[in-house]
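Before going further, learn to read the protein records used in this course. Taken together, the tokens spell out the fold as the letters spell out the chain. A record is reproduced here so that you can trace the correspondence yourselves:

***
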Amino acid sequence: MTGLSHRTAPLATRESVSFTRDQLPEALKTLKDIAGRGVVVSTCNRTEVYTVARDSETGRNALDAFFTAVNGNGALSPYLYTLEQGDAVRHLYRVAASLDSLIIGESEILGQVRDAFGVASHHGAAPGVLAHVFHSALRTGKRARTETAISRNALSASRACVEISRRAMGDLSRRRALIIGVGDASKLAAQALRDAGIASICIANRTVANAFELSRALSADVATLDRLPELIGEADVVVTSTGAPDFVIDVKTMYEAMSARQDRPLLIIDLAVPRDVEPAVGDMEGITLQTMNDLEAIAEANRRERETEALKVESIVDEEVDRFNTWWESRGMTPTIAGIRHWAEKLRAAEVAKTIARVDGLTAEHAERLEAMTKSLVKKLLHDPTKALLDRNDESFTQAARELFALDE
């Protein structure tokens, strides 16, 4: 695994290699061309690429080549980190369990890892070992949420919007929110603000039809982006997360919007990576601009509150890493176990066929019962030998089994 995150890279660097869901297929094509397979996990606070390689040097070179291909200028090197083998597995499990998140316990990351794996699988980029390790990571994240209180009342980026809004605006019951975009972050932020009692919400999107479902759920108004100056002029809180490649709100737009505000303060929360709001907007009088970087103070308080639960989640991660290692080490026995089962099935099928041929008047139902009974018998006979091979996980013991069943003849 090679990547960068909020721990190693500033926002401007992270957004240079951030991929929206629509951009992921092209990134995966590049990754497949270079490494043959892989999964790209890209969120607001990280972009990490996982692959499987024959050796360390090949894997490192492939992932370095990928980041060079998607970034081009080589400026990422100081911010990238690389993990291999068990360290990479453990890191992925901690990411899925929200232990490596900016806000520990946040709920979005598990879904983001699931989506990243789903897209990679759909494009044939995550077979075999990658599929196994990502399924294990998703199980780890689910266990963290269900077996501990790490996510109970946890802040997320969307809930942090409410906290920031209350600090800036006080009582929200008379405030108006403008939500720009209808992606996951926008939806969650809109719901969080509605739950916090904000007076009204307007959802602005490039395609109005895509905003209607969300508007119905929140009893919100809907508007197109060409009305942005007017909408910003009416709002008290603006939350934006569109995934657009260019700024959605620039200084020119804000000058148009502020002319109608009569000195009312405005809070803008930019959850997008790359950013939706031109940074110079934050220097304008009467405007407070918050980005993902500004969540750090809230994240630190959240981290302290969740230290006890985080230790419990670390124990779950340890268990799942051990479970993966057992599977990894047992792969050498897989051909032997498969060979024994194939040998037994071949004998069983041959003997059943002989019996059916010799017995007169055997009905199809009786033949099916004979098949089921003999398959069950073989499965039970092989259970203990198979378990012994897995438990011993010993090369000489495995070779003895191959000789006993004549698998190499």
